[in-house]
Specification:
Layout (H helix, E strand, L loop, with lengths): L11 E5 L2 H4 L12 H6 L17 H15 L3 E5 L2 H4 L9 H16 L3 E7 L5 H4 L9 H16 L5 E6 L1 H10 L12 H23 L3 E7 L3 E3 L4 H16 L2 H6 L5 H6 L8 H7 L5 E5 L4 E5 L7 E3 L17 H14 L4 E6 L10 E2 L6 E2 L3 H19 L4 E7 L18 E4 L4 E4 L1 H11 L6
Parallel strand pairs: 1-2, 1-13, 2-3, 3-4, 4-5, 5-7, 6-8, 7-10, 10-13
Antiparallel strand pairs: 8-9, 11-12, 14-15
Helix pairs in contact: 3-5, 7-9, 8-9, 9-13, 14-15, 15-16
The protein binds the ligand OC[C@@H]1[C@@H](O)[C@H](O)[C@@H](O)c2nc(CNc3ccccc3)cn21.
Amino acid sequence: MSQTPVFPEGFLWGAATAAHQIEGSPLADGAGPSIWTRFAHTPGMMLNGDTGDVACDHYNRWREDVKLMRELGLTAYRFSVSWSRILPEGTGRVNPKGVDFYSRLVDALLENGIEPLLTLYHWDLPAALDDRGGWLNRDIADWFAEYAGVMYRALDGRVKKWVTLNEPWVVTDGGYLHGALAPGHRSRFEAPIASHNLMRAHGAAVKAYRELGKHEIGLVVNIEPKYPASDSAEDQAATRRAHAYMNEQYLHPALLGHYPPELKEIFGEAWPDWPAEDFELIKQKLDFVGINYYTRNVTRAAESYPLNAAMVKQPLGTYTETGWEVFPQGLADLLLWFKRTYGDLPVYITENGAAFFDPPTADVDPRTGARRVRDPLRIDYLRKHIGAVYDAIQAGVDVRGYMLWSLLDNLEWSLGYSKRFGMIHVNYATQERTPKDSARWYAEVIRTHGRKL
Ligand SMILES: OC[C@@H]1[C@@H](O)[C@H](O)[C@@H](O)c2nc(CNc3ccccc3)cn21
């Protein structure tokens, strides 16, 4: 970044969370269980046996959390809705208390000048639908559109930026191919089917929005730039496969109406011949794309499944607690690739952040009793990545906002509470919130509209 940044007028400065990671009370007020309720209570699936039963108790503490957002000066907040709070069986009967929770949250955000960005699906499929095949059942496109319609009717107008899916790649790769995430399947035949039905459901929800909604809707993907470890043909080919598998597998059908050809090469006999009409459903006009960026991959050829590619650890690199290399240039490179490949569609950075070690309890000043959590590594990470966003904007990419992952320390899926991504520290024993130094730094970035990076 070569000069004091000035971000575009109206650029949104926010933070992001997800229902199952922060809310707790998964079965309160008539809610049905999700696949994560089940997965977390399946022995051996979660580090330390952690579950989302309490999490950050946001279901009860949401007023306090909105107050903290206001104090930091956030102008936007990205959150997700738990499908099984709204439709306990996934379809049919609506649970009014579930709708009320999100309606009250949205009203509180608006009263505090915070724009809501609502994600309809952030991995917590109703268990009742998983029992009917879940993402492997083609009917899920209709089930998802039904759920989306309930939310559009309830909140559209107060919510003006909707997201259909969060990261279909992780849902499929984690939940159906490698089994590390709910529902814990390990099948190279199931993964492409789940992946395709996720995109059909995305298309059906966007189509429903065009009939019911009056504002904006998009898709959120996690993408990582892939750099070849060498200029050997094998490493170049492995990098091409890795790029297609993560970065193009979802954006291509959503924005171009076809899959990248590498997917047939990767999955072979496990890659079906999809009906042409499926792509008419999937390729719906979008108002924006959300990009979740965390790291890059230096890629080499290797015997691995299914990509025959492996990541190369960088000896001089800095790595986060989740083992991801800190590489801010990758975000700028990725945004320029997006613009070159898909054109001038507006983009939001819908997640960016890092887990570094933070203590389980905040430091307390013995004289004043003030609590503090020092997190200089996170400040350095955020400063450099927000700087990369600025550089991409200067290079002509239409980035409209930045959502820091995450507002609060929270349940890091099957890693439990072992990884802290929050700019606000959560003492899980007391549920006490303490803004970390990174939160106070981010508040200054927001107040100066990026000048104080
Ligand atoms: O891991 C941090 C966050 C996670 O808490 C969010 O719920 C999720 O949206 C999210 N996506 C990524 C992107 N990368 C990723 C790669 C492999 C497995 C899981 C996530 C990171 N994160």
